[in-house]
């Protein structure tokens, strides 16, 4: 079953410049600029002063869902260039003191569970990382890159072949993009 007309609106805050050139969307703001390929040929856009409207005619259910995803991505881009995104990770070690260092585009984890060889996690381009005591702070404009970097670090310090209930050492996300995790 097709839906005759689907519309989605996005509010553009002051100080943010949004440029739509099919298939690319560019957002400029005080924290930087982001450009992504998001649009398909079936989606048309209309712009008023501080509002952007996307219109999809004769759409299937999946196309309607894709339009919602497109709008969510653009809202994330606007939020990123306006305020930025921050993830915080906690370094937890009980018996062997773990040391974490930022080295170029990598985070080096030394002495993890007493291992001799250091583990590495990649910091993606556009993400700034800093280590203070037992907290790693990641900041950037793109929520996908910041989240993927946090995941890379968490996976690099993952326990293998041991009981997680006993060996709780690792690096864990405890705050992400406005959500505090317990």
Describe the structure.
This protein has two domains: 3-82, Alpha-Beta Complex (Outer Surface Protein A, domain 3); 85-180, Outer Surface Protein A, domain 3 (Alpha-Beta Complex), CATH 3.90.930. The longest helix has 22 residues, at 61-82. The protein has two helices and 14 strands. The chain is α+β, with helices and mostly antiparallel strands.
Q: Quick summary of this structure?
A:
With 182 residues, this protein is of the alpha+beta class. It has two helices and 14 strands, in the order E-E-E-E-E-E-H-E-E-E-E-E-E-H-E-E.
What's the arrangement of secondary structure elements?
Blueprint: E1 3-11, E2 17-21, E3 24-29, E4 32-37, E5 43-47, E6 51-59, H1 61-82, E7 85-92, E8 99-103, E9 106-110, E10 119-122, E11 127-132, E12 135-140, H2 143-156, E13 170-176, E14 179-180
Antiparallel strand pairs: 1-6, 2-3, 3-4, 5-6, 7-12, 7-13, 8-9, 9-10, 11-12, 13-14
Radius of gyration: 21 Å
Major sheet: 5 strands, antiparallel
CATH superfamily of the largest domain: Ribosomal protein L6
Assigned CATH class of the largest domain: Alpha Beta
- In the sheet with the most strands, the strands line up as 11-12-7-13-14
